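dumping this here before i forget
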Amino acid sequence: MTVFEIRPLDRYRVGTVQPQPGRRHRVPFLVVMLHVHEELIRPAGDVVGVDDQSMGWSVDRFVISRRAGRDANLDRVSALGSVSLAGMLGSGGTRLSWTDLPSVVRDGVADVLRSPVVRAQSQTGGFSPGSADRVVTATGERAFVKAISAAQNPDSPGMHRREARITEGLPAGLPVPQLRGTVDVDGWIALVLTDVDGRTPALPWRTDELAAVLHALEILERGATPCPLPELPTARDALAEDFAGFDRLAADGVAVPGVDGLRDLAERGVKALVGDTLVHTDLRADNVLITAEGAVLVDWPWACRGPGWLDTLMVLVEVDRYGGHDTDELLRTTPVTRDADPEDLTGVLAGFAAFFLDAARRDPLPGVPRLRAFQRVQGEALLTWVRRRQGE
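structure:
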């Protein structure tokens, strides 16, 4: 199956175009083909319709331009499914809204904030099917609330509780939100965090926003080494099984050219995951907020202890996938990564490629319908970068 991703141009990102019920909007966007290696090279301006009830975006028609110059015209996108605004920007789940939460959860949030919530704005992006809302209370106080139960995804409540423990233990001065409180009631878990007045970075990555994130990661390395949470697992322990994905692919007869060499690289990558810096391990644009003061790193359930360069490497995976930057030169010159062994970095990239390609074969997770497609794209992009670094 061929999968398409709709990428609106920067000036049409969230906050700059407000859909109006019953109106139609002309929005330029790029149509990017996933799961194949043909680069799509020209934008197409097309009519975008707005559904009165869901306020979701749908595409009536578009033209896909392939590198070979052949145009594929689709009269309607219905064969591929509707395209939501969240889907355009990389969201992997169908989010709950503030009003979907049980009253006992909303009341608990009011207790944490000492005032009832009178306004909530749902946030797009990420892969959680839970709620994610910037809220304002009756006293004018602002906060960010994320909530979920096992009904949306059986694993997500545990992730929220883990993130609460991690965020609560982080020292002041790091570029991360602070936990204000939690609500854990009737199978629901809600985190109440400081509201960050920011936006996710543009994709493809802009130079200034990338610089802000790399600077935040320098601050994190300086301020979180040694790791302020010594009880966290090491990155080696946390990722060793994930990095063995090439073994599972080979055992199942999945053909991956050069798999033996890739497996050796991934094994080297596991051995390189040594260090005592707090590392996020899941950094990409939708886990970053750009503010007037710099970048803030959000969503910490997968944090562990590892090498200080790991998160910078992970951000550059997405940067490399979208293009526009010399990621290898950035690895050579960025303070956090410039002293790392280049072969270790390649090994870790191979390990993550193994994880994503292996995970992409699994059944979809409840409430996260687009995760497997993302993992496939991420795995293929990683594999391309690994082979380029090896001179292939």
